[in-house]
Amino acid sequence: MKIYSEEHEIFRSSLKKFIENEMEPNIEEWEKNRQIPRSLWKKLGQQGYLCPWVDEQYGGSGASFEYSAIFIEEFAKANIGMGIAGQSEIMVPYIVSYGTEEQKAKWLPGCTSGDLIMAVAMTEPNTGSDLKAVRTTAVKDGDHYIINGQKTFITNAISADVVFVVCKTNTEDDSLSNAFSLISVDDGTPGFVKGNKLNKMGMHMEDTGELFFDNCRVPTSNILGQEGKGFQYLMDKLQRERLYCVIWGQSMAERMLSEGIKYAKSREAFGQPIGTFQHNAFKIAEMATEVELGRTFTDSLITDYIQGKDIVQRVSMAKWWIAEMANRIGYQAVQLHGGYGFMEEYPIARFYRDVRAQTIYGGTSEIMKMIISRTLGF
Q1: What is the set of active-site residues?
Q2: DSSP of 255-277, one letter per residue?
Q3: Which of 40, 60, 152, 298 is deepest in the core (most CB within 10 A)?
Q4: DSSP string, 274-320
Q5: Which long-range contacts (CB under 8 A, 24 or more apart) does 307-315 make?
Q6: Residue 176 vs residues 16, 22, 135, 168, 242: alpha-carbon distances, Å
């Protein structure tokens, strides 16, 4: 299944060199600081890597989704910059699809240049997958909304210049279809407070935090799209978001398999490479087969998405299976490394920590199975 042309591969080669030269040497520092610096965002913007699919009038290249897929793959293989790729491929599409021309002109050039960092604030302390339980409210007061509530586990929360907040704008309506809206809040707005940068098990360099809104007053013009249509907008973009998660998880699995094979060929025990022992050879064969199956599934979804097909059922299948598969690959790759797999100087240790979140964010494996079962009539 051939997706990428020679032109696409030239883009990939250029991006890989950038990652190798500008990102990978800084992994240890960024992990320690629990933050990727803004300077990297700007360097990526200067090279045209951010939001390549956005129209040229807003600073993008108007490129096809193939370029986005390559962008996600290469970032994931290095396991750096999930928040950067997430902004480019998950957050910015909301602006392009539902923003006014004034909003697009205001935000998109900064997103493509790396000068503007965005976040979408959906999850709350007592609500994960259950959007109906969202308690953050936005009550109209003349030509303003007054927002009250709390969000957590928000990607780019601490560094964000603009946050799109999922709010309940119709407090009398318990339905999902008319109750929620997406409202932008600028950093520094009175009543908007950024809380703690969360101390996560993995993904240390990725900015994840809490947000608080206490009588935060914003103009009604800050609403994205129509009032009450927030849930519809979120659902419309979930196919792309989950495809992003699939590509990221698959690419991590490929890198972890590569690390396992490389170590199994170089490490010797009892006078021979450890990969030549039958147990290890069989494990590697199983890992390689699962990764190959995942790649075939992933490429099939990318192709269908490019062609505009409905992929809700299949992308949900891929989201849970590939996330779980990537975790299996991580476990076995660490085991192949033995004691060295537990040492921080080996990339597999960081990958193993970080891949665990694949089964949680973007919809847990359990939620994916619920979606699949419903599409099958249950």
Answers
A1: 241
A2: HHHHHHHHHHHH-EETTEEGGGS
A3: 298
A4: GGGSHHHHHHHHHHHHHHHHHHHHHHHHHHHHHTT---HHHHHHHHH
A5: 310/239, 311/239, 311/243, 312/238, 312/239, 312/371, 312/375, 313/371, 313/372, 313/375, 313/376, 315/239, 315/242, 315/243, 315/246
A6: 42, 44, 13, 10, 20
pLDDT tens, residue by residue, 111-139 = 999 999 999 999 999 887 677 788 999 99
Among the residues of the chain, which ranges form H helices?
A: 6-18, 27-33, 38-46, 65-78, 82-86, 92-98, 101-113, 176-179, 230-266, 278-306, 312-337, 347-355, 365-375
What is this structure's pTM?
0.95
pLDDT of 187-235, one tens digit each?
A: 999 999 999 899 999 999 999 999 999 999 999 999 999 999 998 998 8
Radius of gyration of the CA atoms of the chain, in A: 21
Domains of the chain: 6-116 (1.10.540.10), 120-227 (2.40.110.10), 232-375 (1.20.140.10)
Who's near 328: CB < 8 A, 6+ residues apart? 287, 290
